[in-house]
Design a protein that fits this description.
Blueprint (H helix, E strand, L loop, with lengths): L27 E14 L2 E8 L2 E8 L5 H9 L5 E10 L7 E12 L17 H6 L1 H4 L3 H23 L3 E2 L5 E2 L11 E4 L2 E5 L4 H9 L4 E9 L12 E10 L3 H22 L1 H7 L12 E3 H10 L12 H10 L3 E8 L16 E9 L2 E8 L4 H10 L8 H4 L9 E7 H8 L21
Parallel strand pairs: 3-5, 6-10, 12-13
Antiparallel strand pairs: 1-2, 1-4, 2-3, 4-5, 7-9, 8-9, 10-11, 11-16, 13-14, 14-15, 15-16
Helix pairs in contact: 4-6, 4-7, 8-9
The protein binds adenosine-5'-triphosphate and magnesium ion.
Adenosine-5'-triphosphate (ATP) binds next to strand 11, strand 15, strand 16 and helix 12.
Length: 442
Amino acid sequence: MDVNVDSLGTWRRTHYTSEIDGEMDGEEVIVMGWVNSIRKLGKLVFIILRDREGMIQVVIPKQKVPEEVFKIGKSLGREDVVAIKGKVVANEKAPGGCEIIPIEIKVLNRAKSPLPLDPSEKVPADLDTRLDNRFLDLRRPKITALFKLRSEMLRVVRNTFYQEGFIEVNTPKLVASATEGGTELFPISYFEREAFLSQSPQLYKQMLMAAGFDRVFEIGPIFRAEEHNTRRHLNEAVSIDCEMSFSDDKGAMEMLEKVVYNTLVHLKDHCKREMEVLDIDLKIPDIPFPRLTYDEAVDIINAKGVEMEWGEDLSRAGEKALGEYMEGFYFITDWPRDIRPFYTLPKEEDPKLCKAFDLMYKDLEIASGAQRNHIYDLLVDSIKRMGLNPESFESYLQAFRYGMPPHAGWGLGADRFMMVLGGQKNIRECVLFPRDRHRLTP
Ligand code: ATP
Ligand code: MG
């Protein structure tokens, strides 16, 4: 045991720093956290103590505290971990209107100096340095706030699903074949065979419709071996996925609107402090969100001077052009069948098109969904049309032979959604430990 550090003993935290105010003048409290900053002025030591919820000033005047307390106070350095038992003193001049005068201080651990990164946000650091020292970076109030928002977002999303009668499920992330036959797969060795990391729960969600689960959702990782480095792609992302039986594309879009709308309303009502720290003001959108057809999107993009042929997927330049034209959230519907996955249902009235949709926020795609193809023969045709071999989808196709209801669903990128909610331009900001083309640690 390091003799220079104290144990907690019987101490328990009585308050987070944010729970203490001037009205508690004279009360005894125990707070625990990090030394965010410290000033030593001869006979007076000022500490700003930081915990997850905020900061409080601790004042240690030599004359008014036990000798030992002053000695310990003077010995402290930035980011040391301390527990402080003390009296609350109302003081209008202190940040937050009060401060603590310690009765006893326990040093729970020391931090080495110099720090590789400044958590007090005084010294800016580039993103790479920050991600290399992510645990320190995450101590910054702005960064902590973003992940509290993320937690609240997940809470509302889950609650909305529960309210709407969905069952939460977990599907395998080790899979034998590609979901969509794409090349963006990470191969892994699975004993004597090759396997892959799952790029989407798509096929499993659909099999659960055949299982009669009616409405399912899953919040889990998706893995994509995308080579390109962009500010909106990661190689491991979190997808909020759902699938609903006896529903069409419209029903799925309405569910997605509910999820997005409820999240915005909840964050605006319950996360005022985080919003303030992050300096963001969420606008609550009107429901329903505007709906553009793919045809209309192509026209807008071309009118903006970005060339695009009918039948092509949106290029980055195309998305940007649309983003300049459209405010906030909007759907793009009625996509050409050939640029959507095989499991999408073609439109009866115009089989060149399909019942797919994307949810966009300005120039960012945040979700993709569709009414699915639930008719066996049509599905096998579509698989072949895409140049894929139906045999490699046998265990999936089996689910369509014995009573598959019509169904629809979507996948919403949790990290992309956070970019919108947290006002972030780089998806890496919204993920604790991002995985990109160059980063596998920490
Ligand atoms: P994009 O065209 O932007 O690369 P996508 O159409 O390939 O995305 P989908 O397969 O439709 O992505 O996945 C559904 C959602 O999952 C996307 O709308 C997005 O929010 C999220 N997503 C997909 N791939 C990634 C990724 N590599 N990094 C982060 N989020 C992703
Ligand atoms: Mg998509």
